[in-house]
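May I ask you for just one protein sequence along with its backbone structure tokens in two labelled lines?

_____
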Amino acid sequence: MLKVGDKLPSGSLQEFIEVEGNGCSIGPNSFDIAKATAGKTIAIFALPGAYTPTCSAKHVPGYVQKADELKAAGVDEIWCVSVNDAFVMGAWGRDQKTAGKVRMMADGSADFAKATGLTLDLTARGMGLRSNRYSMLVEDGVVKTLNVEAPGKFEVSDADTMLKQAKGG
């Protein structure tokens, strides 16, 4: 399992881009994790699935609300990662009003989740292999903090905890 001090696993995540620009076409675009994190401080939070109750009511809204404070604390980007495709993550981002605040990164085949060892098997609930709920602060591709939730909990991966960690507390 991924731990503090580890480099993020290599691979890519996809993001649905609404407006063409910065070399990105409209629609799903693939981003190399190592290149996207190089020289940056990124707050990453992962969750089991788009449109699920806790994720939609608490997890994403908290990061949207705290985005400016996180950026003031030195965070360059905020990523929400979920085992969903880029189209679903794009639509969910529109619903959650994440534009300019949180990048909605798709891990469609759970490759990133598997590589981190932070998976959650929800096959019995009809959802297959998903990502566990967690957050991490990453500097230049290296994990500086990691907050993994216990099954069914939402206590340590929230935006307030990440903000305290980004401020060095």
Notes: Strands lie at 12-17, 27-32, 41-47, 77-82, 103-106, 119-122, 128-131, 134-139, 142-148. The chain has one domain: 12-166. The chain has five helices and nine strands.
